[in-house]
Give the backbone structure.
Amino acid sequence: MLGYGQPQIRNKLALNTCYPLRQRISMRYSMQGLSLEETADYCNSRMKLAGCNSEVFSPAALTVIHNVSGGFLRSVNNIAVASLMYCTERKMLSADEEAVYQANIETGF
């Protein structure tokens, strides 16, 4: 059986209380998150599009972003933005893995 998009949605729909809704879904697709390399490329390309010419995220920070987000773009974006805000508040010029962990703890992503 194929899934219903993201794992959180698939888990919710697996509940018996959602059986009537699950019956009405005609198309099923299981989304996969980005790989570590794709997550890093995505974050770096978004920073370049924003006009940043320097490496903002260390390789270790990108690994943490990927691990915490599972490679799902919405989560990648939320964690990256939270990390940038954390670094801005502390006047840091780049995000390391500790900054990503702390931002993740503070925001609950």
The mean pLDDT is 89. The chain has six helices and two strands.
